[in-house]
Amino acid sequence: MFTGIVEEVGTLVAREEQTDAAQLAIRARTVLGGVALGDSISVNGVCLTVTGVEPGADGTGVWTTDVMAETLSRSSLGAVGAGDPVNLERAVTMQTRLGGHLVQGHVDGVGEVLHRTPGEHWEVVRIGLPPALAPYVVEKGSIAVDGVSLTVSAVSAVHDPEPWFEVSLIPTTLRETTLGTRAAGSPVNLEVDVVAKYVERLLEARR
Questions:
Q1: Number of H helices, E strands in the chain
Q2: Which region holds residue 147: left if phi is over 0, alpha if psi is between -120 and 50, else beta?
Q3: Residue 88 CA to chain centroid, in angstroms?
Q4: pLDDT for 115
């Protein structure tokens, strides 16, 4: 479980393609503090398992993780390559402050940045999303975009054939996450509020 509060932006340094998976090597600093094999780290909103760690001399290190074909095909990780920046967050503990919202690290779909509107103190970003996810996104609700916990500031009609939502990014988010450089056309991982999915399931059972 995560909160959607990105701890640092790491760098993908190597990608090894395998028969039905890929191994990623990511350079990081903060998220490697106290890390152990088997721990979970969110990479652009995808919960991945630490399979190896190589400490560096400059305080950074490189950790590895295996990503199966299912994850590669259902998230934007299928398209990342060496040199790409990635949002990183360690799994929460019982002592962690829940600064964002409950994020599972299970991507529901891939959206696309449609356009950005700069403001004096923030930037409004409109993101297109798969129609099947539109009912779960509500104004003033929470959504994780590439692992970043955000508040929805506007939404399209629920039955719009090309649904979208908007988020307003403050300077800290623009500076400290990859969302500051996601240009129009860029894919982004989306995870909707898990509570909405449970409510829908319960209503289906009652019917």
A1: 3, 13
A2: left
A3: 9
A4: 97
Q: Are strands 187-192 and 85-90 parallel, antiparallel or unpaired?
A: unpaired
User: What's the pTM value of the predicted model, to 2 decimals?
Assistant: 0.94
Sorted by where each starts, the structural domains of the chain and their CATH numbers stand as 8-90 (2.40.30.20), 109-206 (2.40.30.20)
Residue spans of alpha helices (H) in 19-104:
69-74
Return the pLDDT at 121: 86
What is the pLDDT at residue 175?
95
pLDDT bracket for residue 206 (50, 70, 90)? confident
Contacts 24+ apart (CB under 8 A), 127-132: 127/164, 127/165, 127/166, 127/167, 127/188, 127/190, 128/162, 128/163, 128/164, 129/163, 129/164, 129/165, 129/190, 131/160, 131/161, 131/162, 131/163
Phi, psi of 132 (to 5 degrees): -65, -20
pLDDT digits (tens, 9 = 90+) for 160-180: 999 999 999 999 999 999 999
Tally Cβ neighbours within 10 Å of residue 58. Answer: 7
In angstroms, rounded to a whole number, what is the distance separating the alpha carbons of residues 76 and 10? 16
